[in-house]
Each structure stands twice: as C-alpha cells, then as structure tokens.
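Write out the 3D structure for:
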Amino acid sequence: MSIKGLTIYSKGRCIVVEFLKEEGRFYLENEGEMVAEITFTQPNDEFFIIDHTFVDDSLRGQGIANKLVLAVVEKARAEEKTIIPLCPFAKGQFERIPEYADVWRK
C-alpha cells in the first residue's frame, strides 16, 4: 500500500494529489482551504499518537481518511516507531487492517 498518486474527485473533476506535510500532520488543501487532515503527536522517540482525522463532506466516500491513516503508518514504519490510534476513525482502521499490526502500540 502507498499514498503516492492519490486520486480524488472534486466538483466532477478527477485530480491526482499528494498530501502536504507539516510537523504532526498530513493534509490536503483546495484553493488555500484545508479539506482533509490527520494530526498526530510524538510524545517520545518511540511512538506517535493519532488524535484527529477530518475529511470535508465534498470529498467523503473516496477513501481519503484511509489514506491519511496510511500516511502516518508509513511514516512510523520508515522511522521505526509505533502508533497509538486514539482517534476513533484511526482506531477502527487499525482494528480492520491486519497489515497495521506491526506498528500498532496496544
């Protein structure tokens, strides 16, 4: 699984995008407005805590929230860290996707 080349549909158009990155978050913007986001903290050098996921109503149903969780999972793997998914959506993803077990800090 990979987040490269995320395809979304907005206002009848197909758009290929990649998430923007800042300290503690991955997000999408449309015309300067944030339309999707996942936030996480890093309380120490061992793990991340996912605390929030948001997708604008206009983009729902396209798997964007799933891809946001995957972005944090890939970051954790690359940095050899684990994740505590406190956000209810992220926790549900960890419960449904067995491939996330390697980074799930229970």
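Residues 1-5 have pLDDT under 50 and may be disordered.
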